[in-house]
Amino acid sequence: MHETVTTILDEVKALWMATDSLSSFTDWPDDLTTGNSAPNYAPAAEKIMAWDMPETSPTSPLCRAVQQAALHVNWQFI
């Protein structure tokens, strides 16, 4: 798994910890596991990488992590 994908999980947890409405809604799961699926490109990855977000938003670190991982994840299509 590419390190940028692990960063997404770290940023989600940081956002959960910093947001009372999230952390009071549910406990952080302690049974998350990572997979080793090969990246599966999605055309939307280019749009994700082009996001322009405000730097001061509490979600900005998570959005940047998703941008950096966009080419390294296994996108599933349904």
Summarize the structure in words.
This protein has 78 residues and is an all-alpha fold. It has one domain. The longest helix has 16 residues. The two termini are 22 Å apart. The mean pLDDT is 90.
Shape: globular
Query: Average pLDDT, to the nearest integer?
Result: 90
- The total of beta strands comes to 0
Strand content: under 5%
Number of individual domains? 1
Helix content: 40-55%
Major sheet description: none
Number of helical stretches of at least 4 residues:
4
What Rg is obtained from the alpha carbons, in whole angstroms? 14 Å
| Distance between the ends | 22 Å
What structural class should be given to the helix and strand makeup? mainly alpha
List the uncertain runs: none
Order of SSEs, N→C?
HHHH
Could you provide a short overview of the structure?
This protein has 78 residues and is mostly helical.
